[in-house]
# Entry
Amino acid sequence: MPAARKRSRACSPARKSHPRRARRLIGCWRGCDGGFGGMSEVLPLLGTVLVLFVVPIILIVRASRARLWLLAVLWFLSPLVVLAAVLIEEMARKPGDAATRPDNVQATIGFAIGLGIIPWAIIWLLGMAIVLMLRRRSKVEAAGPVQAPEAVAAPRLVLPPAPAPPPIFKGMTTKDLHERVRNLAGQHGWAERLLPISYARDNDTPYVEVDHRGFHMATYDRGQAYGQRQTQDLEEILYWVADQVTYYMASEEVARGISHFDEFAPRLLARQDSMLAEMNPEWHRRWLNDPASHAAFYRRKIQTS
# Structure
């Protein structure tokens, strides 16, 4: 007990500053806690951290982009290199020791890998995150502040001139056109009921008229127009009328003399062909190659069958 009291008194802090008492306190700290002898164990640990963590981060941050992931993989495998170096050193210093036998060395390596792979992977991922952050920051600093682009005057948008409206048609009225159709019907013996001049716009009834755009021809059913065509050429509108009327005439004539529906198309085409050839050779030549004629459907049907 007296020795313990002396030691505790010696280790108690000094109330007054005195060189002799300060030296006594330092000696007491060395005797009580081991003093600076513990630094011999701390320094190797700090060196290992420096070699395995700090130095690789500095090297990878400064490396080129092509070698980035190669150095990262080598860094991940670096603990194995350190472990192998330590084992080789131990085997060289203690060749006859049981710990340096091959089976014990293999067990040591397996034990180190099994226990250290997950913690080291976490440390490696943390280090790579620091590397990528530092590399990105260095790129931003090297690029400097982003300068706003100079304002460029927007080019003036030049619009093309608007298309000119079609000229107003003033050559003929609807009444004049109907009179011309009646004269044509009288020349070729067309029935009045087949002429497209009836104002009853229903039951698929064709009708021709004139407005400020020119001649118009359309078929009406329940007040709705379909198959509309427009032109400012009188000969063209008369050809449309002739095609319409001769189609109806040929259809009625052929329908009365056939016994099977397959006979209708060829007989219709033959009959309308002869009618138009007799009326007007120019209309006939146009009708033969007109895809919009009324009989064009039957012509295509015969060609594909």
The radius of gyration is 54 Å. The CA atoms of residues 14 and 21 lie 7 Å apart. Strands lie at 205-211, 214-221, 224-231. The mean pLDDT is 78.
